[in-house]
Amino acid sequence: MLLKFAFQDFLDDRTFKNTTKVNIRNYQTLLGEFINYCVENEVVNVENITQSHAKSYLIHCQEKGNKAGTVNTKLMRMRAFFNYMVECEVIKISPVKKIKLLKDDVKVEVFNDEQIIQMLSYYRRIKRREKSYCAYRDYMLIVVILGTGIRRGEIINLKWSDIDFENQSISVFGKTRRRETLPMTEKLTKELRAYQTFCKQHWGKTSEYVFTKRDYNQITEFSLMQIFQYLGEKMNFPNIRVSPHTFRHTFCHRLAMSGMSAFAIQKLMRHQNIAVTMRYVAMWGNELREQNDRYNPLNSLNI
After folding, report:
1. Can you name the residues that pair with 17 across neighbouring β-strands?
2. How far apart are CA 113 and CA 21, in angstroms?
3. What is the pLDDT of residues 258-294, one digit of tens each?
4. What is the pTM of this model?
């Protein structure tokens, strides 16, 4: 079977199975790179792809500068594709079945207090000086993610009707494809009320979406990432990426450092598996040790 037809058949199958648009795009991009690599190396049929071809491509990715996590993600996409080819009886055995994931030294960067204050102060200055909607919007993007750990796709699709000011909660259509409720603190509730009032005065009406572009239409994933890319260039923080996910990690980090239980963190982060939560908690083990040394109840006992 020709690779290009097999690839399209696989994408059609993912679409039929109601895979999210984000995942479909990931398959198109990440798996598409592998398909193109094979074609460029004159391997045009699925049946002709060997483990050697797959390993050669992954080594090529490493040589391009792809980190272990990125290579592993590409390998997982390849596994899904070849497993589907096995199911369809196009091939008997997946050529990537015995290729193991790379060991990945995961280090998640988070913002410190000074960096957070610097970013928020930057937008506050612009808002005061120019009464800019975009500055206030970008300020609130940070506040909402830091206050809830909300995901990128969720914040793009967040509507005013999803916010329950009375019960201080936000409803989102989460990663698990179901409605989930996030609690809001009183401080975040007040911030969102003030922002809503500003939006009504600025636009003369209330948009369906909480965050919009300059043209009053719903903010897109591309424009959201541009906002954080621009902020990153302005801040020029060393060794840390300014992105929605870094703010989400910061939210998780602060929960762990506060002494909150892993179970409670899992619920707030909405991890399907608590093992994911425990992986994050383990990353900050040294900081937890310092906190334990400082606040352990045995410190105040004369024993």
Report:
1. none
2. 35
3. 778 888 888 888 888 887 787 777 666 555 566 666 6
4. 0.71
**CA–CA dist 265, 240 (Å, integer):** 23
| Cβ pair 168, 189 in contact under 8 A | yes
Residues 6+ apart with CB under 8 A from 219: 156, 209, 211, 212, 213
Closest CA to 4 of 44, 60, 37, 64: 44
Domains of the chain by residue range: 3-87, 113-292
Nearest-angstrom CA–CA distance, 274 and 251: 17
Sequence-separated (6 or more) residues with CB below 8 Å from residue 94: 79, 82, 83, 85, 86
- CATH code for the domain defined by 3-87: 1.10.150
Residue from 139, 148, 157, 164 nearest 212 by CA: 157
The full DSSP string for 131-174 is: --HHHHHHHHHHHHHHHH---HHHHHT-BGGGEETTTTEEEEE-
- CATH superfamily, with its number, for domain 113-292: Intergrase catalytic core (1.10.443.10)
Q: Is residue 220 within 8 Å of 209, Cβ to Cβ?
A: no
Q: What SS3 state is found at 297?
A: helix
- Reported as a single tens digit per residue, the pLDDT across 99-124 is 998 876 666 788 999 999 999 999 99
Q: Where are the alpha helices (DSSP H) in the chain?
A: 3-16, 21-26, 32-40, 51-63, 68-87, 113-130, 133-148, 152-156, 186-203, 221-235, 244-257, 262-269, 274-283, 285-295
